[in-house]
Design a protein that fits this description.
Length: 345
């Protein structure tokens, strides 16, 4: 009986009820690549959402990751949905999908996962999330009902149990309980890291002797361990700055119209700052053994951004936004100084 009452209480710990029920739709940018296909999950999480996702799994399966865009909803259902994500080993992200000329794309900087939705996302085997995307506050019963203290304690216990099960710090409960139901606290980078919410990619960065000097190299790997994209950062006396080279092993599968030599809508993002780039930053590009590559001159000095993460977008074509794009983390000042003293040209 107590288990039934607890399940009911969790179901009524709803966050909002202002949008349409969550739907699950297959989305594709039209390419054949990692990240070119995903499932757009948008809307309010209701008591029926876990069953709707089960039906979606049975009918179409999941290709790619789950992209959440939700104001929240039913907390008990969100936890059930999160467990389904974990049971199927799914990667979950936050974003808003739109269709352009018949192809899907994720709108940059759009989409959030608030309140109960945060708990659904926590079930992802991997969680791709950026600062400001996850919102938390106190759970509450609909229509302002007061839950008995014993019921509240049982609900808190079930939430903590779920967090522990998913490998998330129970500190999230304390943080959320400090925000009134009418407010919303969006988790910053430090909180995402401290609470173990954001998945930490394998760090492949290393300094090597190459190209006549010291270079920083790292990769993004396929599940097989083979490189999907390779990156090299080095200084250049000839170019009077820093060069970033990207080698894209998957580009031959989905590059259609993008010509790196003519790119004039490139963007470098560092934290919240988006820095436009154009043809003058393009140094060279080509194809070697089906591997597309591009070298560009950075519009910033990495020494002004030590330790910060960055992301480079090569173009804004919906079907090819990911080609020759990618990011990393600038090294510390000591590493950059060593690279400067050993410039290759």
């Amino acid at each position: 009986m107590m288990r039934f009452l607890l399940a009911t209480a969790l179901c009524f710990a709803a966050a909002t009820a202002t949008s349409e029920p969550m739907t699950f739709k297959r989305a594709s940018s039209g390419g054949i690549c990692v990240g070119c296909t995903w499932v757009a999950a948008a809307g309010e999480i209701t008591a029926d959402t876990p069953d709707a996702f089960r039906a979606f799994l049975e009918k179409t399966g999941v290709e790619g990751h789950i992209e959440l865009d939700s104001p929240g909803g039913n907390l008990g259902a969100a936890i059930a949905l999160g467990r389904l994500f974990r049971d199927h080993g799914l990667t979950v992200s936050v974003g808003r999908t739109q269709i352009v000329d018949g192809f899907a794309e994720t709108l940059q900087g759009e989409g959030t996962c608030e309140s109960a939705c945060t708990f659904a996302l926590l079930g992802g085997q991997e969680r791709w999330v950026e600062p400001g995307q996850l919102g938390v506050h106190q759970f509450y019963a609909p229509e302002g009902q007061n839950l008995p203290t014993s019921a509240t304690q049982q609900i808190m216990g079930q939430i903590v149990l779920y967090l522990v099960e998913m490998g998330i710090s129970a500190e999230l409960v304390t943080l959320a309980s400090q925000v009134p139901p009418g407010g919303m606290h969006f988790l910053d980078a430090a909180e995402l890291d401290r609470l173990r919410i954001a998945s930490v990619p394998r760090d492949t960065r290393r300094v090597e002797v190459a190209e006549g000097g010291l270079v920083l190299r790292w990769e993004i790997l396929f599940d097989s361990g083979a490189p999907e994209k390779e990156f090299t950062l080095r200084c250049s006396h000839e170019q009077e700055g820093w060069l970033l080279t990207i080698r894209d092993h998957s580009a031959q599968e989905y590059i259609y119209y993008f010509d790196p030599a003519k790119a004039d809508d490139m963007v470098l993002t560092i934290g919240e700052e988006r820095i436009p780039m154009w043809q003058a930053h393009h140094i060279a590009s080509g194809v070697d053994d089906d591997v597309h590559w591009m070298t560009l001159g950075l519009p910033v000095n990495p020494k002004d951004h030590t330790g910060k993460r960055f992301f480079f977008e090569s173009n804004d074509l919906p079907r090819e936004r990911g080609v020759l794009s990618g990011g990393g983390q600038f090294p510390d000042a000591a590493t950059l100084d060593a690279m400067l003293r050993a410039c290759g040209d």
